[in-house]
Design goal:
17 helices; alpha/beta; single chain; globular; Rossmann fold
Length: 449
């Protein structure tokens, strides 16, 4: 018999059902009281550990040794020389509806132009060209220039890449060709102070994250979204079979390889973006640079720093966690496309713990490991005490792996935390400004706000 879906901890559910009514009522009263405090903006601030920068080993210099997943650029360059194939791949990767959302031309009937820029890092960058009217925007009191790039990478060697194009023509859902969107917002009325690389959640257009971006733009930062398009897994869903007779270790290794490949895409995209900025020159310098990750983006952020250990001067992680497999299987919202199937009966509690542990043993890019790369820079963790979407226990685990940096804890859940972001956006931007020295002109802009 095969069972499908996320692994649930039935023991915890049974324990909750057996809890005396008076205890449950008191617990709910405490939750309501804490939630009220959280939604009113109250938080618990924990300073960074005094020992955080006084450690030996890989955390001290931000070095994490990783065997990075292989990527190939030659077939992508060859495809760019064949307009028909490039257009076909572009239509698959960026359907018309998504293209309209990205370049901001609702209702445009033409597919729009794609301008190929070349090889950067482990992939290629193309620009989704918008109408001039969509390039200069004003939101609230902020005017900025906006452009959209698509970073495409593949794990297919040249000899099998043409087969992929044929599979796509036949409607076969395969995922060896990945796209990450890079949305650049540059201040239009003042020189750029530097780059804030914002690794988005699965809802990059939410008003909550937008408030943080506007606060940073207002202070002169160029904000670049690293948008992973659809989350941890795209299509097909990541399905993994656990055979109880063989144990959990083979499945744990397979999941670790798949998660590492996906996390690497965010890191490769960030690397390519910096190479593009350095190559382009212009008004936006590639330094100083700060990393901000939201939800899934906060999970991916440590891997980006592991790839680029000398690029960032500070980081803010909002609603993140460590141990991706545990997060997907314990989340109250989604499995992020990572589905486990079991044969030979359901898993026991000890099986589950072993699965999560063996996954961490096999993974190299899970934030549990790559958090060590952030040991040399100031980090702010923004944490939801009652988070069930990115379970709070995994957020605490990430905090410990980061060696206890500064943390702001809010007595809310995951959605409550993001609902609060607009009220905390100026405070987050000021924290970033305190870590990264600015020029007098930028300071004057902050004082006038």
């Amino acid at each position: 018999m095969t069972t499908t879906g996320r692994i649930e901890d039935r023991g915890r559910q049974a324990g909750a059902a057996a809890c005396p009514p008076i205890v449950r009522r008191l617990a709910w009263a405490a939750v309501v009281w804490m939630a009220w405090l959280g939604l009113s903006g109250c938080m618990i601030r924990t300073p960074a550990s005094v020992d955080r920068y006084q450690i030996d080993g890989p955390r001290a210099d931000g070095t994490v040794l990783v065997d990075w997943p292989a990527r190939y650029t030659q077939p992508l360059v060859e495809m760019a020389d064949r307009p028909k194939d490039l257009r076909r791949a572009s239509d698959v990767l960026t359907p018309q509806r998504r293209r309209e959302r990205l370049i901001g031309v609702p209702g445009e009937t033409k597919p729009g132009r794609t301008r190929f820029h070349g090889v950067y890092g482990q992939g290629v960058i193309s620009e989704l060209v918008a109408e001039p009217s969509a390039q200069l925007r004003t939101e609230s009191d902020v005017t900025y220039r906006r452009s959209v790039l698509a970073f495409v990478t593949t794990n297919l060697p040249p000899e099998t890449f043409d087969s992929y194009i044929r599979w796509q023509d036949q409607g076969v859902p395969v995922e060896p060709l990945g796209v990450t969107y890079l949305i650049i917002r540059e201040p239009a009325e003042s020189p750029s102070r530097g780059v804030v690389m914002h690794v988005t959640s699965v809802y990059p257009d939410s008003p909550y994250e937008r408030a943080v971006k506007l606060a940073l733009l207002r202070r002169g930062w160029t904000v670049i979204d690293v948008d992973g398009a659809t989350g941890l897994f795209r299509s097909p869903r990541g399905m993994f079979l656990i055979d109880k007779e063989k144990g959990v270790e083979p499945t744990a290794r397979s999941v670790a390889r798949a998660v590492d490949r996906r996390l690497a895409e965010w890191a490769y995209a960030a690397e390519a973006m910096f190479e593009y900025l350095d190559d382009r020159g212009g008004a936006t310098p590639s330094k100083p640079a700060v990393l901000v990750g939201c939800s899934l983006g906060a999970i991916a952020a440590p891997t980006i720093v592991a790839r680029l250990p000398d690029r960032f001067e500070a980081a803010v992680l909002i609603g993140g966690g460590a141990n991706v497999l545990k997060i997907t299987q314990r989340s109250s919202l989604t499995d992020a496309g990572l589905e486990l199937l079991t044969t030979g009966g359901s898993l026991s509690s000890s099986d589950r713990h072993e699965l999560f542990d063996r996954y961490l043993d096999a993974s190299r890019l899970d934030p549990h490991h790559t958090a060590a790369a952030m040991g040399g820079i100031p980090v702010l963790v923004v944490h939801a005490i009652f988070d069930r979407i990115v379970p709070a226990s995994t957020g605490r685990a990430l905090y410990e792996q980061l060696d206890r940096p500064e943390r702001w804890s809010f007595p809310v859940g995951h959605l409550g935390l993001f609902w609060l972001l607009p009220s905390q956006s100026a405070r987050i931007a000021e924290w970033i400004g305190a870590q990264v020295p600015s020029d007098p002109a930028a300071d004057g802009a902050e004082e006038r706000e």
